[in-house]
Amino acid sequence: MGSAAVQMACVALGVVGLIGIVVCCAVPLWRVSAFTGSNIVTAERSQEGLWTTCVVQSTGQQQCKNFESLLDLGADRQAARALTIISGMLCCLSLLVLFCGSDFTTCVENEDVKPKISLMAGVGMLLAGILVIIPVSWFAHNTVRDFYSPLLSSSPRMELGACIFVGWAAGVLLIIAGGLLCCFSRPKQGNSGVNAKYYSNSASTPNKNYV
């Protein structure tokens, strides 16, 4: 019962983490305009994501444009695209594997195989969490570096967007879920070996006929 409760909690954490990965991949809020110094009120603000860059007017109108060339992108954005997609796919696969091999479902009836399936799902969630944290942290590092760079003081400064924090939260949730699955997915040790040894000793005992 306790293992089933932990698995249900891990499924919930995995679903929330998957939603966070999808939000990071789709929403263009990885980098936003920073209002510093005398630049407090502006007519527009910029937003950047993995696929598009947007300009939001003070009236609320928003214009977005896709990045034209893949080769023209920076290494951090290219890596973020690939790792975020791989993380989402791995998270989906891990959730399916966990749902099939969990104790609260009857997809797999072999009780000896279920812990191994849950362990595979836990490792997959751990990898998915790490894969989403790597590009988010790399992108955040480059954003902070450019913000404090004296060479870029004349250009508009950009700061961390909401997707950076969503990605960190999603990665932490997936790592927690994977760690719990790895800890609670231990194979059950039965007494089949003891019974086999007992029957073997009983069979080897010679029968004595008393007269």
UniProtKB/TrEMBL annotation:
PROSITE patterns: CLAUDIN. GO terms for cellular component: bicellular tight junction; plasma membrane. It is a multi-pass membrane protein. One of its GO terms (molecular function) is structural molecule activity. It is found in: Cell junction, Tight junction; Cell membrane. Keywords: Cell junction, Cell membrane, Membrane, Tight junction, Transmembrane, Transmembrane helix. The chain crosses the membrane at residues 6-30, 79-99, 119-140, 160-181. Belongs to the claudin family. Claudins function as major constituents of the tight junction complexes that regulate the permeability of epithelia. This is Claudin.
